[in-house]
Automatic annotation (TrEMBL):
Name of this chain's protein: ABC-type polar-amino-acid transporter
Matching Pfam families: ABC_tran
Enzyme Commission (EC) number: 7.4.2.1
Positions of region (Disordered): 227-250
Length: 250
């Protein structure tokens, strides 16, 4: 589903991704871990065309997401192509960024209606089913300010899913939540993983990574230091950097 080859990304003189090679298979769940500043968010953003690469290539579902050094889109990809590709990837952020002036249901239906030009009659059943799936069927008419952070994040997940993406990217989806609200969000993510969704999840929830991830990838300083099944990377890390990171987060 995702193939990254030699991906480089700099901000000014700061090189943040130093040649990333990473493949994610269809249906695979990859948890990306590493210290703050190691480049995890930037990596996710590159996958979804939110950053221009300074080198390397990315393919999502066999479509290239690369740019050359001048920022020209490779393979003569038009802006429209990029927008279309982007609709196939759902992204969930630490801060859920729901539209405050719209009900939960309208938040979920907005992108399918405006971007995919789907009729309300077509989107509504799907939106309602997704609200059910994230355990918020009774909140359809509520406004975001009346929901807890955990509920808002579950709405944000439903909103992303309503675009029927092939790939879901999560960037620390539970980091901004009070501890007692984390579990419900992780349950939704676990169910999604079990349903066969391809997922790349940046998280500090090691329990989730151990239980749900097919593979854990540890990043440090813009590079992948170590990756493998959770039992290996979390249970028996080979690199000193991984060991010290894990002892710090545990
Ligand atoms: P992580 O998600 O692992 O904490 P990030 O990918 O957010 O790491 O950031 C990696 C590094 O890149 C950090 O040093 C951060 O300050 C820097 N960085 C990220 N985005 C930008 C940006 N838009 N402009 C300048 N520096 C950035
Ligand atoms: Mg980050």
């Amino acid at each position: 589903m995702v193939r990254m080859k030699g991906v480089r990304k700099s901000f000014g003189s700061l090189e943040v991704l130093k040649g990333i090679d990473l493949d994610v298979a269809r249906g695979e769940v990859v948890c990306l871990i590493g210290a703050s500043g190691s480049g995890k968010s930037t990596l996710l953003r590159c996958i979804n065309h939110l950053e221009q690469l300074n080198g390397g290539r990315i393919w999502v579902d066999d479509k290239v997401v690369g740019y050359d050094l001048r920022g020209n889109i490779l393979h003569e990809k038009s802006y429209n192509d990029i927008c279309r590709d982007r609709t196939q990837t759902g992204m969930v952020f630490q801060h859920f960024n729901l539209f405050a002036h719209m009900t939960v249901l309208d938040n979920i239906m907005l992108a399918p209606r405006t971007v995919l030009k789907q009729k309300t009659s077509e989107v509504l059943p799907r939106a309602k089913a997704l609200l059910e799936q994230v355990g918020l069927a009774d909140k359809a008419k509520a406004y975001p300010r009346h929901l807890s952070g955990g509920q808002q994040q579950r709405v944000a997940i439903a909103r992303a899913l309503c675009m029927e993406p092939k790939l879901m990217l999560f960037d620390e989806p539970t980091s901004a939540l009070d501890p007692e609200l984390v579990g419900d969000v992780l349950t939704v993510m676990r169910d999604l993983a079990n349903s066969g969704m391809t997922m790349v999840v940046v998280t500090h929830e090691m329990g989730f990574a151990r239980e749900v991830a097919d593979r854990v990838v540890f990043m440090h300083g813009g590079q992948i230091v170590e990756q493998g099944p959770p039992s290996e990377v979390l249970g028996d890390p080979q690199h000193e950097r991984t060991r010290s990171f894990l002892s710090a987060v545990r």
